[in-house]
């Protein structure tokens, strides 16, 4: 995925003709890209390895690479980032969900569970516990460590929380949240095929109350603000676009408008650690700080401006590993709270 560096190969580029895409992609490249695409299979998958590699190879064949004349003599490889960034294009996901929709209609398979079923269930149950604590005023802000900021709702019932899942894919995360007691559920995806698949699966499984809409989070048309916004892998995919750094800035600008004041944003990522996500939110807070209004009279007097988001908590139950003296995990789930300044 992000940060992959493909090993160079000892091959000469032909000067007689521009190389075709298939000439520039080796079997090793296909294997690495397929492994990148299928990281979620480490936690469970409905597709076998041969099918997964075939799908990734087919997707690679649609990527436009530079011709041989565009490469210098000491760099005769297509950029690894260009190979990995296929997951950042809507055309890739349109093709993927078209296949998965056809597979669902023929065999009833729901398709891939991004990061696997275990992670999805952990995210749903952990989110429920956190939201219940917030509703009851039990959870303190882990940054300030001396105050809590409960989501404003009358009956403190999870059923009344408005929930948005951005980049919902097949919509299975929303089904898990429904099982946890949430009922005001909306899923969006910029791929129409994903929305068709999510609706079909939800109807089959009896979750007819879940709403699904075609919407691009970077150019969202939604006007509603939600008390809980979920992102499981969407920020990862956005970051894999060749203009990922710019699109990530667009992401935060857009998401900050979708989370209600006092609401919660939960991000699950395999490309960013908990600390990296906190740092990215800190950068967004800095960029937008000058435009924020003081949150309290005390802030106004002191000239302090509240940040748009505060770190709340993260999942601590994922398996960890040691690398370079640091402890990490393959997946990070982090919660941020929107400040009450709107």
From TrEMBL:
Main location per the UniProt record: cytoplasm
Location of region: Disordered: 1-22, 284-308
Compartment(s): Cytoplasm
Bias (Polar residues) ranges: 285-294
Any one Gene Ontology BP term: methylation
GO cellular component: cytoplasm
Gene3D superfamilies hit by this protein: Vaccinia Virus protein VP39 (3.40.50.150)
Molecular function as annotated in GO: protein-lysine N-methyltransferase activity
Domain annotation Methyltransferase: ranges: 162-280
InterPro entries assigned: Efm4/METTL10 (IPR026635), Methyltranfer_dom (IPR025714), SAM-dependent_MTases_sf (IPR029063)
Key words of the record: Cytoplasm, Methyltransferase, S-adenosyl-L-methionine, Transferase
EC code: 2.1.1.-
Pfam families: Methyltransf_31
Enzyme class at the top of the EC tree: transferase
Matches recorded under CDD domains: AdoMet_MTases
Keyword Cytoplasm: yes
General function of this protein: S-adenosyl-L-methionine-dependent protein-lysine N-methyltransferase that methylates elongation factor 1-alpha.
Family in the record: Belongs to the class I-like SAM-binding methyltransferase superfamily. EFM4 family.
Listed name of the protein: Protein-lysine N-methyltransferase F0562_004186
Organism from which the protein derives: Nyssa sinensis
């Amino acid at each position: 995925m992000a940060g992959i560096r493909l090993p160079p190969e000892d091959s000469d580029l032909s000067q007689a003709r521009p190389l075709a895409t298939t000439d520039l992609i080796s079997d090793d490249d296909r294997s690495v890209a397929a492994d990148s695409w299928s990281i979620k299979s480490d936690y469970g998958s409905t597709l076998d390895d041969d099918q997964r590699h075939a799908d990734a190879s087919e997707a690679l064949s649609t990527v436009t690479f530079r011709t041989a004349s565009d490469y210098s003599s000491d760099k005769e490889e297509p950029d690894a980032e260009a190979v990995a960034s296929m997951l950042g294009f809507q055309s890739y996901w349109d093709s993927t969900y078209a296949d998965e929709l056809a597979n669902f209609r023929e065999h009833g398979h729901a398709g891939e569970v991004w990061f696997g079923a275990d992670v999805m269930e952990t995210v749903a149950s952990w989110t429920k516990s956190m939201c219940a604590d917030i509703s009851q005023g039990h959870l303190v802000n882990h940054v300030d460590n001396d105050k809590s900021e409960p989501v404003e709702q009358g009956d403190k019932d999870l059923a009344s929380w408005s929930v948005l899942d951005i980049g919902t894919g097949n919509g299975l995360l929303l089904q898990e949240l429904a099982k946890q007691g949430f009922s005001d559920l909306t899923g969006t995806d910029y791929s129409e095929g994903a929305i068709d698949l999510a609706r079909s699966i939800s109807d089959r499984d009896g979750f007819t109350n879940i709403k699904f809409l075609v919407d691009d989070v970077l150019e969202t048309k939604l006007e509603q603000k939600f008390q809980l916004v979920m992102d499981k892998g969407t920020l990862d995919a956005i970051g894999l676009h060749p203009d990922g750094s710019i699109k990530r800035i667009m992401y935060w600008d857009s998401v900050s408008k979708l989370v209600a004041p006092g609401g919660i944003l939960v991000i699950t990522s395999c490309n960013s650690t908990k600390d990296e996500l906190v740092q990215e939110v800190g950068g967004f807070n800095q960029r937008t700080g000058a435009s924020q209004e003081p949150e309290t009279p005390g802030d106004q007097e002191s000239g302090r401006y509240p940040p748009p988001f505060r770190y709340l908590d993260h999942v601590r139950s994922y398996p960890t590993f040691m690398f370079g003296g640091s402890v990490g995990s393959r997946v990070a789930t982090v919660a941020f709270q929107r400040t009450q300044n709107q």
